[in-house]
Amino acid sequence: PPVEAAKRLSAYAAVDRHIALEHKLIGIGSGSTVPYVVDRIVQQGAAANAGRTFLPTGFQSKQLIIDAGLNLGDVDQYTRLDVCIDGADEVDSDLNAIKGGGACQLREKVLADMADTWVMVADYRKNSTVLGTNWKQGIPIEVAPFAYAQVLATLVKMGGTPTLRMGKAKAGPVVSDNGMFIIDATFPEAQMKAPAKLNTEIKLITGVVEVGLFCGMAKAAYFGNEDASVTCRA
Ligand code: DER
Prior knowledge:
- By secondary structure, the protein is of the alpha/beta class.
- It has 8 helices and 13 strands.
- The protein has helices at residues 2-18, 34-42, 46-50, 59-67, 105-114, 148-157, 189-192, 195-203, and strands at 25-28, 53-56, 81-86, 90-91, 97-98, 115-123, 139-143, 161-164, 181-186, 208-211, 213-214, 220-224, 230-233.
- The chain has a 6-stranded mixed beta sheet, sandwiched between helices. It has a 4-stranded antiparallel beta sheet with strand order 8-9-7-10. A 3-stranded antiparallel beta sheet has the order 4-5-11, with helices on one face.
- Strand 12 and strand 13 (230-233) form a beta hairpin.
- It binds D-4-phosphoerythronic acid.
- D-4-phosphoerythronic acid binds next to helix 5.
């Protein structure tokens, strides 16, 4: 299907451009595009990967690294990374992104902070001008379960429309790898046009652990297109 081909194209382009032999500490993101990133890294060969350590951004990411036979590292041992490649739910014209569709945004943002180079990979559906244009599910916000009712109320006061993310194959709310709940909140376009400000405002709400707005963090974003071309925005 075109979307899967587009995901693969973006992942291969990003790995070919940003993961060179000298890069030894590599972060692996989460979601359905990142498996193609791991595939392309494996294709660089056992010799290239023997001296590398790979850090995960969650349980799924850790399983990807293990299943690919790559060296799994412990985040506690590092304070920086050479490169981290991760997916995105939507990217705006300034390379700000909504992330957290997979409820992994806390560890993803930690590794994005640690990385000298942080790059996003996505299919054409994620390539927007203003956040919220195509991604209608809202900004994923990781919150302490103890505080979720207060956070919901505060988000409403801020002009948001928040909903607690409920499990599909699980009764009750989705629980993240960190034991937290996820609230998805949509906001009017005026607020989505200033994502860095919105990120700060939401992060300051007591009980919020991390916000799925990644502003001014990416070096580049790669989008696979339906016509098999790749758009790189840097
Ligand atoms: O949760 C995230 O931020 C993931 O990176 C994910 O949302 C990316 O989406 P994908 O499954 O389309 O790659």
